[in-house]
Every structure is written in C-alpha cells, then in structure tokens.
Amino acid sequence: AGQSGCQVTLLDLPLSALKIALDRSVIDRIDHRAWASGGDATSLPFKNAAFNAINHSDILCCLLRKHDVLVSCRNVIQPGGRMAFSVVALSPDLSEDDRALAVANGPEFVESNVSYSELLEQTGWRLLEYRDLSTECAALCRQLERIDQELKEELIEAIGLDGFEDRQNDWRSRLYAIEQGLLRREFFLATAV
Fold first, then answer.
1. Neighbours of 55 (CB within 10 A)
2. Cβ neighbours of residue 56 under 8 Å, at least 6 residues apart?
3. 13: closest CA among 43, 50, 49, 55?
C-alpha cells in the first residue's frame, strides 16, 4: 500500500497479529488504505469478486485444507485477478525415509497428495509463473537464526527460553532440510480463469 497506493485488506486468525499490522499502518501513514478482518482462509468473509489481487506467504503449507483455501481465494478474486504466494513444499520423488525426514523438518501440514500446480488447476487458477526460492530461503534461515542470536536476551524476555530454543531449532531444521534437498520454497503467480 505504501509503494503502490493500493488498498489492502488483511486477514488472519490471531487478532493480535492484525492489531500489530494495523498499528504499523498508522506509523507508515497508510492506515486510510488498510483494513483487517479476522477469519478463516478456507471460508473468506468477503463477497465474490471483491479483490483484484491476493497475496499470501507460507500459508498453504501450514494448513490442512489447501484445496479449500484456493477455492475460497478463487471465489473472492475478480475475473482476471492475480494471486501470488509462496510455500514450503516437499521435494518431488523422495524415498520413504527422506519423505518422513522432510515432513519432520517442515511446517506442520507440509504434506500434500497433489502438487501446488495441480491444486491451482483444480481450483480455477492458471499458473503464470513459478520460481524455486530454495537458495534464497536457506540464506534467510541462516540470517534469521543469526539475528535471533543477536537478540537472544530480548527474545527470551518476550517468548521465554523454551520459545527461543524452539525458534532456533525451527531455523536449523528448515535449513538442514533445504540443504539436503528434502524441502524447497516455491513461489507461484496465478490468474483466475
């Protein structure tokens, strides 16, 4: 909204996260173009064709009902509208052991019986662009682990020692799985058909 002048509608379930985002919109002086709604991505609380663009980052890989989310997004997008999103996904053609290791090191619902490209096709989307962002994701995991270490005292105060250690373990396990070729981070740009 700050760069393009567009209007932004945010959706999330933890209302505390929406409050943080709305507070930030005031600081950034774009609060007149930012709205928030608590809601479930599988049943978006908006009228059909309400939006011309949708963006979500690493959401589908953390949700069980991926198909329902994409259908819900398709319902609220205008004809010809676009959706950009990223996911952490299992690498294709893994052995049974490697697949189990990938699942253990990925987001809670990283497994999908259908590829994201197929899911898009099944739910009324046409893929415009795909990119493998695994190299960038590995670099980001390293950077975030390092930043967390630099802010260790503040993070422990905010989320406790167990929370801090969980965060560090998450960065390390994600990095390991990406470096081993078990997981990858993918970017998709699709248009409504």
1. 12
2. 41, 73, 83, 85
3. 43
Q: What predicted TM-score, i.e. pTM, was given to this entire model?
A: 0.87
70: nearest Cα among 126, 115, 120? 120
Burial (CB count within 10 angstroms: exposed 0-12, middle 13-18, buried 19+), residue 51: middle
Closest CA to 170 of 110, 105, 111: 105
Alpha helices in 28-87 (DSSP H): 66-76
> CA 60 to CA 188: how far, in whole Å?
12
Cβ neighbours, 10 Å, residue 184: 20
Distance between CA atoms of residues 15 and 11, nearest Å:
9
Q: pLDDT per residue over 71-112, tens digit each? A: 999 999 999 999 999 999 999 999 999 999 999 999 999 999
| C-alpha 56 chain-centroid distance | 5
